[in-house]
Amino acid sequence: MAAALDREVSARNASGGFLTEARNVVLLEPPGTGKTHLATALDVATARHGHRVLFATATDWVTRLTDAHRNAKMPAELAGLRRYGLIIIDESATCRSSKTPPTCSPISSPRATNTHP
Q: Which of 13, 5, 35 is nearest to 107 (CA)?
């Protein structure tokens, strides 16, 4: 995947340009192509530029937001998330969709629960 990225886009993203431009970065590639590694690099680069970063799996986000909704705390949750310059949603989970609801197991990742002030 990294070879397919435009060098100018990569440099702009590494410098935090996507934040000042208020643009989303979406990494769509097959499993094993380095999306999590690239997201981690954006995480580190963004934190080095002084922005707060929150990194979690998609499964973690669904759980977090579902809990906030269920407990009538969604406005407070969303207000808290606005403190972050970058929120990374990583699909580092394996899901078995044959079950209802699907069963998801996070893949071990030390970055999945870390935040940067």
A: 35
Domains contained in the chain, CATH given: 2-116 (3.40.50.300)
Cis amide bond preceding 101, omega within 30? yes
| pLDDT tens profile 35-78 | 888 888 888 888 888 888 888 888 899 999 999 999 999 999 99
Q: At what angle do helices 58-70 and 74-81 cross, to 10 degrees?
A: 140
Are the C-beta atoms of 93 and 31 separated by less than 8 Å?
A: no
The residue type of 68 is A
Write the DSSP symbol of residue 100: S
Whether the CA torsion 78, 73, 55, 5 is positive or negative: it is negative
